[in-house]
Design a protein that fits this description.
With 276 residues, this protein is an alpha/beta fold. The chain is built from ten helices and nine strands. Strand 7, helix 8 and strand 8 form a beta-alpha-beta unit. Helix 3 packs parallel to helix 5 and helix 5 runs parallel beside helix 7. The protein binds ligand C2E and calcium ion (3 copies).
């Protein structure tokens, strides 16, 4: 009936209002968290496939909402991008990551995620240089991760800014590699040192021979270009064994070795690994 239709519509509008308000509140709370430097950072180690050497840690942003508890970075980074404040988060994560890396053994680097919006900042390289100087961290210990999709979106801006960053001595990684549906031919033309193969290419390699073939195919294409290979999202011993057997990785990042950890736990984990 008409009445019921109208009732549903009102309900729908109320729900839309509620969701909109919820989102607005989350935005205000995120802004407050960023302004008060309330975004924290945890670190997920990357190991050599034998598990003995902790080579680098990826800095991962965390937001603990005062009432809602932890909000996933996939969610709050997207909100920050919508609000145009993601670059503030990047700078804060960079500052923390560089300061924390200074407290680790010298052989361990730190890898920080960039948003597509960071690539559009013409002064990114000079900002990063200042942060390194303030932290007293050599550029060689910093890696920056750019997703394949943001590279495709901002190809010309990215090329310039990545060249500048790389000439400082920073390592450039392509994150979520293989998910951007791009041609591999552009890899050769970009200033890239490392690819991080997305975890979707790892998930079923133990059960599905074609998935393993696909992973091995991506690896052999990039091996020819003299690019480092990190395989992400390795969760099981079986996946690790296959990756080792087929020489698919220089470094492994995944729960099989470690979840993200606090900065003070990095040194101990590196020492423990070297004993095995
Ligand atoms: P990402 O850059 O691909 O980071 C790796 C994500 O995979 C992390 O999730 C990590 O905890 C998770 N992960 C690691 N090993 C495994 C595994 O073995 N299995 C599974 N299932 N997951 C694993 P997290 O910390 O929730 O971050 C999600 C995404 O949020 C990141 O994906 C990145 O895109 C974004 N992000 C996090 N921190 C930052 C940041 O500081 N800046 C920017 N721009 N983005 C960030
Ligand atoms: Ca990443
Ligand atoms: Ca990734
Ligand atoms: Ca991702």
């Amino acid at each position: 009936s008409k009445a019921r239709g109208r009732g549903n519509f009102t309900l729908f509008v109320d729900e839309m209002d509620a969701r909109y308000l919820e989102r607005q509140r989350l935005k205000a709370d995120l802004r407050a968290a960023v302004d008060s430097h309330g975004i924290t950072v945890v670190y997920q180690p990357m190991f050599t496939p034998d598990g003995r050497k902790l080579a680098c840690c990826e800095a991962l942003a965390r937001w603990h909402h005062p009432e809602k508890g932890p909000i996933a970075p996939n969610i709050f980074i997207q909100i920050a991008e919508e609000m145009g404040i993601v670059t503030d988060i990047t700078h804060q994560v960079l500052q923390k990551a560089c300061a924390d890396c200074r407290t680790w053994p010298e052989s361990i680097g730190v890898s920080v995620n960039l948003s597509v919006q960071d690539l559009r900042q013409g002064d990114l390289a000079s900002t990063v240089e200042k942060i390194l100087t303030n932290a007293g961290l050599p550029a060689a210990r910093l890696h920056l991760e750019v997703t394949e999709s943001s590279l495709i979106e901002e190809l010309s801006a990215a090329r310039d800014v990545l060249e500048q960053l790389r000439s400082l001595g920073i390592t450039i990684s392509i994150d979520d590699f293989g998910t951007g549906f791009s041609s591999l031919s552009y890899l050769d033309t970009l200033p890239v040192d490392v690819v991080k193969i997305d975890r979707s290419f790892v998930r079923n390699i133990g059960e599905d021979a074609r998935r393993l073939k696909l992973l091995r195919g991506i690896v052999s294409l990039t091996r020819g270009l003299d690019i480092g290979i990190v395989v992400e999202g390795v969760e099981t011993r079986e996946q690790l064994a296959l990756i080792k057997k087929h020489n698919c990785a220089d470094l492994i990042q995944g729960y099989v070795f470690s979840t993200p950890i606090a900065t003070h736990a990095v040194k101990g984990l590196a020492e423990e690994a070297s004993l095995h």
